[in-house]
Model the fold of this input.
Amino acid sequence: MAETARAVLEASEKLTKQTVAAMVDGKIVDLHTQLPETYTKLTPIESHQDTALSIIRHSSAHVMADAVQRLFPGTKVAFGPAIENGFYYDYSRPDGSFSEEDLRAIEAKMQEIIDADTPFRRENVTKDEAREILRALDEPFKLEHLERLEGQISVYRHGDWVDLCEGPHVPSTGFLKAFQLTTVAGAYWRGDERNPMLQRIYGRPSRPRRRSRRTSSRSKRPRPVITASSARSWT
Ligand SMILES: [Zn+2]
Done:
């Protein structure tokens, strides 16, 4: 069986507590998933590196969606990408929009999930298996999206929460530390006004707490505008 990036990095004493993923021949991979049979170069990605940002942000989006669905049962999820300066996730909530009070409750629930330090796990699945998982979860947006996907399908879990996703993610929820949910905005499913209106919650995580001093010293930079342009194809 192929090795994991974690095993290779551990063996060469390159794994640190801040290692969030690995770069294998130019592709970012989880620490826990199997490496390709052949590769030439493997380097660790540390939490303070810019490459780590989108992994940390997107993993935060998973945790936010988990928190939202725990607090507001019946809410459906759409897409949750990392974006410039943060992340978002789109929701269809039966009761409508989210209030400021709701955001604070979601932040508190996210902190609980982060404190639990639950591992993220990748599973490669067939399209039929993914369909079964999403039907059981009753996630219509994910089901619709699944039908557009080609090639290897994967789902990621942390605890009981599962998402159709290509990854990668941080090793465990404990790698996500300071964050803040900022705004709620309406967003059409797939950006098309003929589609249902969803509720988009934006978040701004910072890097893991161990790096908070470094993060705060950089906080005087001009605030970048949040755009969805850096969103990945399916998350
Ligand atoms: Zn994901």
Residues 58, 62, 156, 163, 165, 167, 169, 235 surround zinc ion (CB under 6 Å). Residues 50-71 form the longest helix (22 residues).
